[in-house]
Specification:
Helix content is 13%, strand content 34%. It is mostly beta strands and 199 residues long. A hairpin with a 5-residue loop joins strand 7 (102-118) and strand 8 (124-128).
């Protein structure tokens, strides 16, 4: 038999490796932002979205957009260089649906970065970031934006799905979620939002 040249793993070495691994995990964990005035704060679960007036979702669509306090029916009409939001319902129908006035509870919030790609005709295409997604402008520089999606629950409009709000699209180094003030500006008088951290 040949001698075993492998050094046995001692309990101290095992403990050391575990501590290093935990250190890396701790370094990668970012505590949630709790200051509503911070630029990277996003509304948390338990926030309330109050719809002040009936909002029509046109037939053949599931979303209605808001920007600078005005309703916009299609994404193609949204200024991507300015924060905007949209309400979304679950069911696609040919007839209009309505988001009724009332209080809608945020049950879950997610954040996601997305890239903006320009094809040869300069038409904007949006795609989720993922493995293998390489979307860029013709000059090789990509533009991104961050979207904050708030799942909603309500008895007034059971078919409602979410309120999603996007920051401006810009160079990757400048990407940030829409601020609470920008979300409120996008919603205008149609809706308002209150967050637990302000109470």
């Amino acid at each position: 038999m040949q001698p075993n040249n492998l050094t046995p793993i001692t309990p101290r070495l095992t403990l050391f490796c575990l501590m290093i691994g935990l250190g890396f995990l701790t370094a990668c964990t970012t505590p949630p932002v709790t200051d509503p005035n911070a630029s990277n704060y996003v509304p948390t679960a338990g926030s309330k979205v109050t719809v002040n007036q009936r909002i029509e979702v046109p037939g053949g669509q599931t979303r209605i957009f808001l920007q600078r306090g005005k309703l916009i029916t299609r994404l193609s009409q949204v200024d991507q260089y300015w924060p905007n939001c949209n309400f979304e319902v679950n069911t696609l129908q040919e007839t209009p649906r309505y988001i009724e006035p009332g209080i809608y509870t945020v049950t879950r919030t997610t954040r996601q970065e997305r890239e903006v790609a320009f094809n040869q005709s300069a038409h904007i295409q949006l795609a989720s970031l993922g493995m293998g997604d390489i979307l860029a402008r013709g000059d090789g520089t990509s533009l991104k934006f961050e979207v904050v999606t708030m799942r909603l629950a309500s008895e007034q409009t059971p078919d409602i799905r979410e309120l999603a709000c996007r920051g401006v699209f810009t160079q990757p180094v400048w990407v940030s979620p829409p601020t609470l003030a920008e979300i409120r500006d996008a919603l205008g008088e149609y809706a308002s939002i209150s967050v637990p951290e302000e109470n």
